[in-house]
Amino acid sequence: MSRAVARVLVDTPLPQLDRLFDYAVPERLVDTVGPGMRVKVPLRSAGRMADAFVIEMADGSEHEGSLSEIEELISEVPVLAPEVWRLARALADRAGGSASDVLRLAVPTRQVRVEKAWLAARAAAADARAEAEAEDATTPATAGTETSSTDNVSTPELDDVATRGITGYRSVDLVAAVRGRARLALDAVPLVVELPAVPGLPPRWVGRWAVTLAELAAVAVADGESAILAVPDYRDQEQLVSALEAVLPPEKIVRLDSRQSNPDRYRALLRARGDEALVIVGNRSVLLAPSTTLGLIALWDDGDPLFSEPLTPYAHARDTALLRYEQQHPALVFAGHARSTDVQRLVEIGWLSEVLPDPRYQPHVIPTTQQGSRDGFAANARIPSTAYLEARNAVEHGPVLVQVAHPGYAPRLACTECGDTARCLRCSGPLQKKSADATPACAWCGALAVGWHCVTCENTMMRSVGTGAGRTADELGRAFPGVRVIVSDGSRPVLEVDDESAIVVATRGAEPIAPGGYRAVLLLDGERMLARESLRVAEDCVRWWADAIALARRRAPIFLVGVGGTIASAMATWNLARFASSELADRRQLRFPPSVRVATVTGRTDTVETALDALPESIRKETLGPVDVEGGTVRAIVRFDYAHGHDVASILRGRVIRAATDRRKPPRDLRPGDARNTNRRTPAPTLRVRFDDVEPFSD
DNA sequence: AGCACGCCGACT
DNA sequence: GTCGGCGTGCTC
Question: pTM to 2 decimals?
Answer without folding.
Answer: 0.89
